[in-house]
Model the fold of this input.
Amino acid sequence: MDDQAHAARATWNLLHDLWTMTPKCQRSLTRMDAAIRQARKEIDWLGVLPAQATQAVLKTYLQAWKNCWDGRAEEPNFKARFRTVMSVDIPQGRDLQIKRVHRRWGMVNIPKVGRVRFRWTRDLPVGKTANADNRITGARLVKDALGWHIAFRVQNAEAKPEPHTGPEVGIDAGVNLPLALSDGNHQDHGRPARLPDGTADRDKWLTADEKAKLLRLEQRAAHRKSFRKPKERTSNRLRNCYDQIKQLRATATRRAADWQHKTTSRIAEQYGTVVVEQLAIPNMVKSARGTIEEPGKNVAQKSGLNRSISQEAWGRTVELLTYKTARKGGTLHKVPAPNTSRRCSACGFITPGSRQDQATFVCKNPDCGWSGNADHNAARNILHLYRIGLALVPAAGRAVVRRTRGVKPATAR
Ligand SMILES: [Zn+2]
Done:
């Protein structure tokens, strides 16, 4: 599988090279297709990747350009060996021959690898339950530190949901509470974002024992690394240490994703209208760092804050809420972010010094004096902004399309 994944990555890089080298007027799908066919014939290790999967790489590459021209993504770039997530696509569902062999295990055909056992984690339309409306259309293999995983693409026809009649709620991505809800029904995973000394806890999803193990592994890795001379190969022992560290981190990532999925499902189930604030996460993280001419102040503290924001993965929470509310018949709205955390949700005034510390909000307006959880306050403000009609129009409906200069979209299409 690793060979296939590296071949897929190399194919991407070659395609990118070819695309950028080819004069603009000659760029075309046929040309790219012919090139990868020839490359697969002539280069052995590119032929390791099944033809279908190679086609899938080409398709994804062209889609990446389309996403860029439509303003949804940056320009595609080379895929580096160590930073890239290893993955292989299986575009055709009928090649998979999925069979359930046990309550917990299934078997699947992986092209050029053979029959492989996989963990059966949810109902899949196979055998008698599969039909034209409800079937598996493909799969994708993805590798993380814990091994290879398979994700099936399932196509099923669902009845259009009835409009959700549940209550409205504003949600704030808090610093102390991962998700603060405007009705006080906060979603917390009981893992404080900060250590007692105030720094961000990047391993909060690990248990105390696992944290101790991680520390031990890191110390061991540092010790083994101290013997490594410049330009020497990483020893197997050191690599083993690194792998174990990565595995622990991958476990933490999975736990975080699990919590995120469960929580967003619950919210979509319960509420009909969900309002969130439009946060530009990359900007917040970048702005703390500052520029070379004007370096940011308190970068360490701020990036601690930002790291905990990034870790709560607000962008993905919104993404999950978008499709989950839609599936339940509810709606998601975004409101502009400025001042939601500084304004008092009881009287509506912004008073200086109201944010006493990260956790508590005390209104300094003499006629009001409301005090409470700062994240809760922001969530109430967010809901209020929606109620007075300040919801933003979804970005997908924009009429303006950003194009990279000099690339004719028509050639790729
Ligand atoms: Zn007030």
Q: What stands out?
A: The first helix runs from residue 2 to 21. The radius of gyration is 25 Å. The mean pLDDT is 84. Residues 344, 346-347, 349, 363, 365, 368, 370 surround zinc ion (CB under 6 Å).
